[in-house]
Design goal:
heterodimer, A: mainly alpha, MetI-like fold, elongated, B: mainly alpha, 2 domains, 14 helices, 77% helix, 0% strand, membrane (chain A), transport (chain A)
Chain lengths: 278, 319
């Protein structure tokens, strides 16, 4: 397949990519946290400057350094994505397990719920929920948590169903183990990797949707240095040729999202026992 | 069975979205009055509330709205001062042109990309195509819109910066060419973003097909390249690709919301954002329902295509 990389096998490659991705994300988060608010204070002497060494991403119409704003925005996005994806994973796990274990009626209700959430476009649901909470941090986190669970819930349901009918679980039940014992000792360890990978793969979507809703003006408040805010503000200045206001923040967001995506994919490879070290 | 399910889903969506919107802290009366806040006394406020039926219990309001909806009346938009159905109808014309163009382009281009990538598997073409598609999946739609705007409207100056029609021109003087010019950039953005999914899916399907024994046999007979694909590949992959495109109506709508916002294109998406920002309850409800119907429509067509076009399904039924 790839003759240049035959030195390492698939798992080793995945491990290296995972470590690199984690280091990269760590650096970004640390930069976002370490930067103080000072650097995004208004500085009217350096307004509308195109990218230079001093301001790698240029400055905006108030003289704020775009590099600092971008990285603060990214950290904020990662935070929102983290909480949102966590909530979504929690919902998916609970509903997936319920529909797989609690009989036909429960299964039908859950699959109806999944259909319910899939039948309205995600973005419209997000707008609706953001509207309900009057915008802001809370609305967007709840919105993301409530819209991203269906696909993962389906995966977990299928997984649990499969393990429940596996022979070792049947035997364990015949030997008189309680349902609780089976759930915690047999089923949970099996679905844990799925949950973890699902969580990682939800992350990029969560971040993108957060940025989208904020961009539309229904998300985080305009005082926060969020990527969506930066981009929607930049729209006013694009016709004046200030391309750097939109280009760099979006590009950084793209890189972060892609990194999370890769991280999820590679963790999946690492955890998949069917891919061996060859 | 399927229609019953759809009906229950629709009713539930009506009910839930109604409850959600009614619980919003954004006061519809305040949103309605807007800047004239200081000139409006509490008595007038009450009158307005009475006029819109806002002082009744929520369930009564829901039944009023629901029964009006069944009679085909979706209420009056507060920001456009027009019946909601008219607003939606007007905007839908704009949106449908945009979405249809993007839908066709992204489908055709994505399909072609997928086919080429699969036929040239593991070459640099395939690898760059895959890389491009994965990057695309991580690209924020609205950022892509901004990039297209910067390059084609600001730097090159080929197209107008936004809106659906030229500014300052009377509605009757707007020509089709003008409208087309304003359509190209948003449609282009939406097409670029929509390509990834179809391409990757088609690539995977065609690789599966190419691994089958009848392809091996065809190759052994000396068929290769385009003829091989045309005779044995195309029929097997075109239906899944079509189904996928129809089932992706939900993403298409979401993409349209963002693109329309970037280009200030006067379509449904922009109306949704406006309604959300300015607290136009009837319009927002109408749009939620409309987008749901839109997605349902897409899924229904995807389902029908499988039943009507796929010869294997036809055989399965007659047996």
């Amino acid at each position: 397949m790839m003759p240049t990389l035959t030195l390492l096998n698939k798992k080793q490659r995945a491990l290296i990519v995972t470590i690199l991705a984690i280091v990269f994300l760590m650096i970004v988060i640390v930069i976002g946290v370490v930067l103080d608010k000072e650097s995004i204070s208004t500085n009217l002497k350096h307004r509308n400057a195109s990218p230079t060494f001093e301001h790698p991403f240029g400055t905006d119409w108030l003289g704020r350094d775009m590099f600092s704003r971008t990285f603060m925005g990214i950290s904020l996005s990662i935070g929102v994505g983290l909480i949102g994806a966590f909530g979504s994973t929690l919902i998916a796990t609970i509903l997936g397990v319920i529909s797989a274990t609690m009989g036909k009626t429960a299964d039908r209700i859950v699959s109806w719920l999944i259909d319910l959430f899939l039948s309205v476009p995600h973005l419209v649901t997000l707008i609706l929920i953001a509207f309900t909470f009057g915008g802001g941090f809370k609305g967007i986190v709840i919105g993301i948590a409530l819209t991203h669970w269906p696909s993962l819930a389906r995966i977990i349901r299928a997984e649990v169903m499969q393990i429940r009918s596996a022979e070792f679980v049947q035997i364990s039940r015949k030997m008189g183990k309680s349902s609780w014992w089976i759930a915690t000792k047999h089923i949970f360890p099996h679905i844990l990797p799925q949950i973890l990978v699902g969580f990682m793969l939800l992350f990029p979507h969560a971040i993108l949707h957060e940025a989208a809703v904020t961009f539309l003006g229904l998300g985080l408040s305009p005082h926060e240095p969020a990527i969506g805010i930066i981009l929607s503000e930049s729209m006013k200045y694009l016709s004046a040729g200030m391309w750097w206001l939109a280009f760099f923040p979006g590009l950084c967001l793209l890189f972060i999202v892609r990194t999370f995506d890769m991280l999820g994919e590679n963790i999946r490879i690492l955890m998949d026992i069917n891919i061996d070290h060859k | 069975m399927k229609s019953i399910r759809m009906a229950t889903l629709l009713v539930a969506i009506c009910f839930i979205s109604f409850l959600l919107i009614k619980n919003s802290p954004i006061d519809p009366i305040q949103a309605y009055i807007g800047a004239d806040m200081l000139n409006v006394g509490s008595e007038q406020r009450e009158k307005i509330a009475e006029y819109w039926g806002l002082n009744e219990p929520i369930m009564v309001q829901f039944f009023n709205w629901g029964s009006a909806l069944l009679a085909g009346d979706m209420g009056t938009s507060m920001i456009y001062r027009q019946p909601v159905s008219e607003v939606i109808g007007e905007r839908f014309v704009h949106s449908v042109v945009l979405m249809l163009t993007a839908w066709i382009f992204s489908g055709v281009i994505g399909f072609t990309m997928g086919v080429v990538a699969a036929m040239k598997r593991d070459t640099w073409i395939d690898r760059s195509m895959k890389w491009y598609c994965y990057m695309l999946a991580s690209t924020p739609t609205f950022w892509m819109g901004l990039l297209v705007l910067i390059v084609f409207a600001v730097w090159l100056g080929w197209f107008p910066i936004g809106l659906g029609v030229p500014a300052g021109v009377l509605a009757k003087d707007v020509t089709t060419v003008d409208q087309l010019k304003h359509l190209i950039l948003p449609a282009m953005t939406l097409s670029i973003v929509g390509v990834g999914n179809v391409a990757l899916h088609t690539r995977q399907k065609l690789i599966d097909v190419l691994g089958s024994e009848y392809i091996l046999f065809a190759r052994a007979r000396g068929e290769w390249g385009f003829i091989l694909f045309w005779r044995h590949g195309l029929r097997n992959i075109v239906i899944p690709a079509l189904t996928l495109q129809f089932a992706a109506f939900s993403e298409l709508f979401g993409g349209a919301v963002l693109t329309e916002q970037v280009f200030s294109y006067p379509g449904l998406g922009q109306a949704t954002v406006e309604a959300g920002l300015r607290g136009d309850v009837p319009l927002l409800l109408g749009l939620v329902l409309f987008s749901t119907m839109f997605v349902f429509g897409g899924n229904l067509i995807a389902d029908l295509i499988y039943r009507l076009l796929d010869p294997r399904m036809r055989e399965g039924r007659s047996r």
